[in-house]
Description:
Mean pLDDT: 92
Distance between the termini: 30 Å
Shape: globular
Structural class: alpha+beta
Amino acid sequence: xxxxxxxxxxxxxxxxxxxxxxxxxxxxxxxxxxxxxxxxxxxxxxxxxxxxxxxxxxxxxxxxxxxxxxxxxxxxxxxxxxxxxxxxxxxxxxxxxxxxxxxxxxxxxxxxxxxxxxxxxxxxxxxxxxxxxxxxxxxxxxxxxxxxxxxxxxxxxxxxxxxxxxxxxxxxxxxxxxxxxxxxxxxxxxxxxxxxxxxxxxxxxxxxxxxxxxxxxxxxxxxxxxxxxxxxxxxxxxxxxxxxxxxxxxxxxx
Length: 254
């Protein structure tokens, strides 16, 4: 699971899975769905911040644990659905404002209620909190270096790890074509919580596999040996919550 601050919680594909008419509505009404996703994320950020502040007061967090903040929030299914339905609500609110079409108003109201239900489920089940959050890695520098890796196009990604070997979300996959060489991977901008990192390589962007036996130290680079290790695990989607914290009731819009 990714952190809330890693990037967009939901994608256009997630919205389309809930509403197959979305692409046609967005095209006909000239609605930028990517902007609605960003706006929904901004709205949830404000509401989550308020919710976390209430949790800090109501639950009287241990002096040994840092108070939760937006950067510690892990994206759970309830949070993802909340964001998806909020974005769809914004799309249809825009469509209705443009055409005053009752069908758009009905869809807007439907997604408003579904967003509210998802938010209530999140509050009841608990917000996912990571005690030592590991942000998504930025794309590393991947360059050719002296070596004997078979000539091919290789795909590379990486993840940061923390002191308990929890792994953050993987970086955007990079590609490099080798010719009588190998590849060198150099991470950039290590986060404060990082104590190491993992590298994943493959000849198929959907089939990357772990290459290092244990996390590589921060500040070190990775030189791919003459073969690509196969049979290992692929990159995950990010760290799991350290805990789920039920939240005080949120006052919904509308």
